[in-house]
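Newbie here. two chains, one complex. Structure please?
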Amino acid sequence: MRNQQQYVTITHYKEREFYFLNHALQTHDGFISKELEQFHETEKDKFIERIRLLQSENSYTQVASISLATNQTVTEEEDKNRVSAKIFNNNYVVQEKMDIGNIPTTLYFSPFAILYEEYRKKLDSKLTLIIGLFDRKLYMMFATEDKIHQSWVIGTRGLTEKQIADRVYKSMKAYYKISYKFADHIEMLVTDDSPKLLKVLREELSLSILPTQNSIHNLLHHMSGEQSRASSSYIRSSLATTRHSTPHKSIKNDLLDANDFIAIQNDAMDNLEDIKLNESPLSGTSLSFMDKIKLLFSNKKGDSSGKQFLSLIPLLFILGAGTYYSMENDKLLKDIIVTESQSYSQTNNTLLAMNSNDVFSAMGKNAELKNATISNSKVELKGVVWGIEPLRNTLNELYNDGEFIIKPLENFMTEFSFKSKV
Amino acid sequence: MSLKFTSLSLISKLAIILSFLALFLWLIPNVVNYYENLNQFTSKKSSLQEVNLKHGITQNAQKFNEKEFKSLATTLFANVTVTSMAKGKHHITIGLEKEKIKIFNTFIETLALRYLVSIENNELQFEKKEKLLEASFIIEEF
């Protein structure tokens, strides 16, 4: 039962044709490492099973490994398209891709991150060359207390110790060419016992080298033993990951429970749940549609406010253009209504003028109007008539259903009235 | 593309999606609608201008102005009175000689080309007063 509550770090890496596996109990006073296990690459399944067994035996686990890729570089900007780890306030170690394979791993560390963690307290304003020997590769970086200025990875396979020292020296010269600075001293971390290499480096470089020796397993146990340390320097895969529910509880809580560490103050991106690489949805093809949607909307606060602002520009432009066209359209609709009204009115007025013209033409010399109402729907006339029949005929020609009435007046004149619909 | 999209923040993703929605559901229909209306307006305006040309009117129709109207009508007819009414209506009376009836009819025909008005009920009233014929009608602003 007690075992179930302990935080266990499982570490592994591959060197040549062997997988090396170790696990350790994390305690308040540090980690207690268990026996080292070794598997030939032909026993990969057995190796994976062993990791899974260790995971199942302990609820609170973290599986850590090291990225020994040679194409790692330390930059001052995070590259979202590549896998990266933040190893300094303004430094990121990035590599092209990560071979996540099918070996369970939750934390990947770069040798540069391990070197930084190892030596960060020793850094000051003087330029320090930090060298790490991991799997027969030299991971080198020139650093001061505020930043890492340059990094190199040098392969040493097949080289003599003197040739390796020569390459280190060439790297220092190359750095001098670009910065006009030599390292004031050299710190070196070796993961293999290599006294001869140290001796040659001391002789060739004529500088004091402070060597430290530790195993990759111990370094990884140290890196993943504390949440703030692990979460600030593991390699974040740029490959999208989802938060699958796993048999293992939240690592964050695990770490807090197990070791009573100070809560991490980094941003939410540092949640270790993000890096369950072997459970990355991209490694499988059985993603549901909803998972894909969730994946698209998984909230990574990786964007700077500048980028967020940039992404708002198209929206603002569209809103601006849309508002402009809406307002112009409204104005245009008002203009159309006015134009239509004007056109309609002009047509009616033309008809009215024609009616009026017809009525007055019909009067001619036959009659004289006293009053009249002329519209496009009716005609009502009243006046004095001299030529009754010509007037009646003309009006009947114009208006078929008209009512023509005549009335004799006392002064021997005749009054007429006429009503008709038009 | 998908990977790049997922690497964006929630605000950026929402902004991009809203941009696409606004573009296809709002801006493009708006622009299309605007240009359809513009064509319609141009066509109607063009028809009206043909009528204007036919009557020798070079200016576009103006908002009704009592003074201007009275000034114009007085050059053609005697005894022009304009009485303003509520709701943008004006009662017009014009005294005219019998000989000027054709001019009056043309005046009525071109009234809507000069001013943005219509004649209420499309109706004219005539009444003989001594030697003049008094025409009256009510105009209504658009």
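Moderator note: Helices of chain B lie at 2-6, 10-54, 66-76, 101-109, 111-114. Chain B has a mean pLDDT of 89. Thread marked as resolved.
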